[in-house]
Q: What sequence folds into this?
């Protein structure tokens, strides 16, 4: 395709028109230094609108860099009026892919912009190919939903403050609720599984108590934990999880606390592991013994037998449902 070269005043370029923009990157210092040192080596590609202003197909960061350096005009390539929106998007995507990989938010923006322009039967495969997304519909839908999240959360995903799975778990909440979850997570030390666990706990508490998730997140106990300056993030995470689990499952949490307090007082040692039934439902407890000889096994069985005679063993809850 042949493009016309033209010197364009920067104030004739609509920097707010992001019809073809999917990049999340801003103007970098190396780019500014390059433009300042050798000029604009690769001119941006623009398309003229009916109002005689220009929209950017590719090269937005370069234009912003020139503007920051005080340029009033720059050399640009002008696409023909006949170039469709779909073709413009494909060019923009190809230009970006030629020198880097897309992040999750850029892939999500790409899906949002491309989907309305493609036939439904070709949409999934075409978009995955253009944006380098795995041909997996579940993954596709997860990435697609990211563009609907508040900008603050999208930025947090890029900075590693929230996982993809954690973000997906927030899709069903209102924007203010999503923001509240994210603000809580930023102050904690959460793995992907813990993000989902806290989201589930808070949601279930809110539903059971007929309040909003924000009210749970902003409750005094959680605020007090988050405001403790002398506690690090892992400690705060443990305390918040313990509080939410106790609030969601008070009976189970109390049984768990009682079990481990009594287990500790029995002094069984690390070679004898006693495990309660899941959620303390049922009456079957499990014992695991680690030993290196018949003599050691005999000693551990004796230790376990003596422990079974103590009140603390009965207080573990064993036999309560007999």
A:
């Amino acid at each position: 395709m042949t493009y016309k070269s033209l010197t364009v005043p920067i104030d004739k370029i609509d920097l707010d028109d992001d019809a073809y923009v999917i990049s999340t990157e801003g103007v970098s210092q190396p780019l500014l230094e390059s433009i300042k040192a050798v000029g604009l080596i690769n001119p941006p590609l623009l398309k003229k609108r009916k109002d005689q202003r220009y929209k950017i197909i590719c090269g937005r960061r370069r234009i912003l860099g020139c503007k920051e350096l005080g340029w009033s005009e720059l050399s640009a390539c002008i696409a023909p009026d006949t170039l469709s929106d779909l073709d413009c998007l494909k060019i923009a995507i190809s230009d970006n892919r030629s020198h880097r990989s897309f992040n999750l938010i850029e892939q999500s923006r790409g899906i949002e912009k491309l989907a309305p322009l493609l036939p439904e039967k070709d949409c999934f495969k075409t978009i995955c190919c253009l944006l380098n997304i795995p041909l997996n519909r579940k993954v596709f839908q997860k990435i697609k939903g990211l563009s609907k999240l508040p900008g603050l959360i999208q930025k947090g995903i890029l900075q590693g403050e929230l996982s993809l799975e954690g973000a997906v778990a927030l899709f069903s909440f209102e924007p203010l609720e999503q923001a509240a979850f994210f603000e809580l997570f930023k102050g904690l030390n959460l793995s992907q599984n813990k993000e989902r666990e806290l989201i589930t706990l808070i949601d279930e508490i809110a539903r059971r108590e007929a309040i909003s998730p924000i009210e749970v997140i902003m409750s005094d106990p959680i605020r007090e934990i988050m405001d403790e300056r002398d506690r690090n993030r892992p400690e705060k995470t443990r305390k918040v999880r313990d509080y939410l689990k106790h609030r969601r499952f008070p009976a189970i949490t109390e049984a768990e606390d009682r079990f481990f307090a009594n287990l500790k007082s029995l002094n069984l040692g690390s070679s004898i592991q006693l495990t309660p039934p899941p959620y303390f439902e049922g009456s079957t407890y499990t014992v695991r013994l680690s030993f290196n000889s018949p003599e050691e096994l005999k000693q551990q069985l004796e230790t376990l037998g003596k422990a079974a005679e103590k009140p603390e063993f009965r207080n573990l809850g064993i036999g309560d449902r007999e």
